Amino acid sequence: MNRFILLFGLFIHVQYSTAQDKKVNFPEVDGYKVLVCDPHIHSVFSDGGVWPTIRVEEGIREGLDIVSITDHLEYQPHKADIPHINRNRGYELAKAFAQENQILVINGSEVTREMPPGHINAIFLQDANLLLNDDPIEVMKEASKQGAFVFWDHPSWPTQLEDGRVKLFEMNQQLLMGGLIHGIEVINGNNYYEGAVELALTYNLAMIGSSDVHGLTEWDYSLAMGGHRPATLIFAKEKTSASVKEALQARRTVAWHNSLLVGPEKYVAPLLQEIIKIQSAKYEGSFRMGEATVLSIILENNSEVEITLENASQYTFQQSLETVVIPPRTQKTIFVKTEKKLKNIEIPFVVKNAIIGVKKHPVWILKSPLAE
User: Fold this and answer.
1) Which of 258, 291, 312 corresponds to the end of one domain?
2) Which one of 91, 150, 305, 359 has the lowest number of neighbouring Cβ atoms within 10 Å?
3) Sheet architecture: strand order including 293-301
4) Is residue 253 located within the same domain as residue 295?
5) CA 71, CA 214: separation in Å to the nearest integer?
6) What is the pLDDT of residue 167?
């Protein structure tokens, strides 16, 4: 049995290590580059299972633009084997290894406390060692002093209210009202936190998606089978640390995992406008007396995200149900019945894989002149 496990592990490693680097590209939106960031990952310098340089290699292999190693400040289970007192060490090793033109590495740490306030990440730190303080309020003040971007991790863990909302203790509310928390994870690992979306909109917090990976991303997210880690899409002017930090401070983010996009409507809606493109729209066949007119429309998905559209118009489709699914980087033809020949078409769709509020989806409008 041990021999079988060893050979299986070797097969997975070879399959992953010999694969070509993945390209993850999202279209620009309103002049901003859409950068892919995982701001919450762990290494052996806290409770992770890999060396910091492996985190960099994984990020490059998976097509990420930015990673932040956020090892636990207070939880160091490997310190007997890897003794260290410098809480910046994981970042320093990763930074030295990384090629800046390939991937940005950001200094971060996870403040690890029971509720309240729970677990909180601070990234863009200057010195993580200065956050070693028993008082969590003072820790957050020090992070603020260093100009860090701070976000609340997995906010429904380990406790939440019965109605699914995130439980706000007095200390959490104090941090939010005092401007010491700037973002919140709406996606952590394979978990989506609906209550976090409500808090983000209430307190003007950036919506964050992260892997919170401890082992290999290949094992956790089945990369060889086409999976990907959760991430944050950051709308930045350019791919630099300063520009990424400015974008986070301005809350220009959308969380992404599998086919799910979660963010404020003002960022999700223009992103969808760039993702979904109309390649052609024209009537097919002749118009003999009594026949229904059928409009052929080719839609293109210009992204890594599977798009699910639900018809919200008075029109019906000839060869499909009311829901249209467009896989990543592909085209889909839909056939729309119209009662008469039109010069223009306008069809609203609810984008079911995008979330802009609690149980709220954006509307994308298919709007096009029709070819003669």
Assistant:
1) 258
2) 359
3) 276-283, 293-301, 331-338, 316-317
4) no
5) 10
6) 85
Structure tokens given for 164: 């699914």
CATH code of residue 303: 2.60.40
Answer whether 69's CB lies under 8 Å from 109's CB. no
- The residues with which 111 forms a beta bridge, in sequence order, are 120
Contact 158, 115 (CB under 8 A): yes
SS3 category, 354: strand
pLDDT at 285: 66
Residue 192 is part of which domain span?
Answer: 18-258
Reading the block at residue 299, the tokens are 């839609």
Query: Any alpha helices (H) in the chain, and if so which ranges?
Result: 2-17, 52-61, 89-97, 136-145, 170-177, 194-203, 217-221, 241-249, 265-275
Q: How far is it, in rounded angstroms, from Cα 129 to Cα 139?
A: 11
Structural contact between residues 45 and 217, judged by C-beta atoms closer than 8 angstroms: no
pLDDT (0 to 100) of residue 318 = 83
Q: Which residues contact 81 (CB under 8 A, 6 or more apart)?
A: none
**Claim to verify: residue 191 and residue 230 sit in the same structural domain:** yes
- Tally of structural domains, the chain: 2
How many residues belong to the chain?
372
Rounded average pLDDT per 10-residue block, the chain, 372 residues: 41 46 89 98 96 96 97 93 93 91 94 94 98 96 98 82 73 96 97 94 98 96 92 98 98 97 98 97 65 84 96 88 93 91 95 97 96 66
The two three-digit tokens of residue 261, written as one number? 């996009």
